[in-house]
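Is this the right way to post structure tokens for a design question? Let me know if I should format differently. Anyway, here goes:
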């Protein structure tokens, strides 16, 4: 992954308010954000391992690295969600519900 530099509007933490912690940032988070924005220009490696980068930044930017380590592992597509819906659909299709309904009817018949 390449970290882009040059676009100063990326330094505005409120631009990333979709991240819950950035919606109302603490003074300490703002301080860490300023340090991070000042150091981004120093990164010249094109293929950087984000996990290693943020683990290495934990002593300097503990709050920001904790947030980053949570968010970099989120799925970037809905493929996994769609796959789970497909699996649940197979479990809950009409053919599988019919035996369940027959069992419920049989239990009701026996009890009453």
């Amino acid at each position: 992954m390449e970290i882009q530099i040059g676009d100063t509007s990326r330094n505005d933490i409120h631009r990333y308010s979709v991240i819950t912690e950035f919606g109302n940032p603490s003074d300490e988070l703002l301080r860490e954000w300023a340090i991070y924005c000042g150091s981004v220009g120093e990164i010249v490696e094109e293929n950087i391992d984000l996990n290693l980068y943020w683990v290495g930044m934990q002593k300097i930017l503990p709050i920001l690295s904790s947030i980053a380590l949570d968010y970099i592992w989120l799925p970037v597509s809905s493929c996994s969600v769609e796959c789970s819906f497909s699996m649940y659909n197979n479990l809950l299709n009409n053919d599988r519900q019919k035996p369940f309904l027959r069992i419920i009817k049989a239990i009701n018949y026996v009890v009453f």
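Format looks fine. Someone answered above. Worth noting: Residues 94-111 form the longest helix (18 residues). The radius of gyration is 25 Å.
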